[in-house]
Fold this protein.
Amino acid sequence: MNAMTCSGAVPGFGLSRRQFLNRFGMGVGAMALADLINPGRSLGATDHGVLGAPHRMGRAKRIIYLFMSGGPSQLETWDYKPLLNERHGQELPDSVRMGQRLTGMSGNQSSLPLAGSAFRFERRGQSGTWVSELLPHTGRLVDELCVVKSYFTEAINHDPAITFLQTGSQVSGRPSLGSWVDYGLGSMNANLPAFVVLITRGKVDQPLYSRLWGNGFLPARHQGVQFRAGREPVLYLANPEGVDDASRRQMLDRLRELHEVQRERTGDGEIDARIAQYEMAYRMQSSVPEVTDLGNEPASVLDLYGPDVRKPGTFAANCLLARRMAERGVRFIQLYHQGWDQHGGLPGGIRKQCQETDQPCHGLLTDLRQRGLLDDTLVVWGGEFGRTNYSQGKLGANDYGRDHHPRCFSGWMAGAGVKPGITYGATDEFGYNVVQDPVHVHDLNATVLHLMGMDHERLTFRYQGRDFRLTDVHGTVVKGILA
């Protein structure tokens, strides 16, 4: 008979096997907890995640993900298709569509008239990348961008498409990309969350759910923390009225003691994580006001991001906040900008969207480069799918709309480990199908993890009897875009 009885109890201790193993590991856990509770002992202490160290030396230490929610039209931004202008108003050929499914919004149209872009394109930079007139500022930086024109996805409607791109599954409940990165690599700052979410204020379009930056089945500490514009950037972080810092510190100390008693009784290691989260919130009472205060930024920096930067909650202000968080060691910063779902009135709608985002994107990249941060920061820009080459609804003389199109869409990356000044992949002359170097959603996420030094096939979490990963059972690193 070995040390463990058949019933799973440890002789002489009256503990279950789980409780014994949990207590056996308390020595190491207590040391880690002491660091979290008393950060002054090791200023700048970090959490190295479940991996302890990356699988390989990745070029990127952090990610800033600029998500254009709603599906920006590639045909008005990055994928120049002069044939659509030549055949403007003609019917989409069956040989191009090849019977592919359409959404219910345009699938019943009696006609699918091709719609050429209302905007001019020109070659920019030494790379000669085609860029729309809607993006004059970003266009100046094309030699630092890797523009991908061959993304494709399996989802044709917003909720499953954005869930798929953010979590690797069309069905909600899986961990988000930021949570996987935090789980694998941990934090670089003891006083700020490893995963932060910023949403443009006041935009009304397709809804954004907190599960998009949720931890899914990963431990709760890996979920994203949403920062908001206004007096309370993080909800419920400030002391309640009548409670000062000394009182809160005393309350947390007593609460920790009660939690430790419970841990001794139950052997539940999750209690340590709960204590650590309380302590992180306490430290954030000082760190969050500091990082969100743009008052000490010089006018020259503010001017980089454009006039909206002085308005809290705008995309421009959030881009500047992203840079401030990046230089303070926040590992994953997710920005959402809504309003890209232009089924009608596309020319006017997308012009406004680009006016709100173009200069801030340029400012962010320029600011990161000037501070030496772009060398180890990966910046990703894109949406959940593309738009059709035909008009949804009536094609007017100066107006049209585009329906959802999962078969191809465009985006870009810049910074750490990405080959600059290239265009990767291609679509057919109608802008309907990928014809060269297709990049699936799982390929994109596999590549992002690779640039962070992680093998997407080895970053797993066991749940309900099987190992899960961000890329499910698919995904290939896109080596053609790696520097």
